[in-house]
Amino acid sequence: MTSVDWLWLLHPALAVALVFPLLGAVLQLAIQTRRRRLNPGKAPASSGSEQHGAVVAEMQR
């Protein structure tokens, strides 16, 4: 058997060993991102009205 024949025999195993786990990881990250975006939490504490007021005060000068 030539090397091309061996590659044809091994390519399904390579797909299972390399491609499918990578696809699973990408899908898991996509699902986590979708859940996080659909369920937004409160705004972070650092984005309070004090910061916005400072910007408005600078604009009025």
TrEMBL record:
Matching Pfam families: DUF4079
Region Disordered, residue ranges: 38-61
Superkingdom as given in the UniProt entry: Bacteria
This protein's UniProt keywords: Membrane, Transmembrane, Transmembrane helix
Protein name, UniProt field: Uncharacterized protein
Organism this protein belongs to: Cyanobium usitatum str. Tous
Segments crossing the lipid bilayer: 6-31
Lineage of producing organism: Bacteria, Bacillati, Cyanobacteriota, Cyanophyceae, Synechococcales
InterPro entries for this protein: DUF4079 (IPR025067)
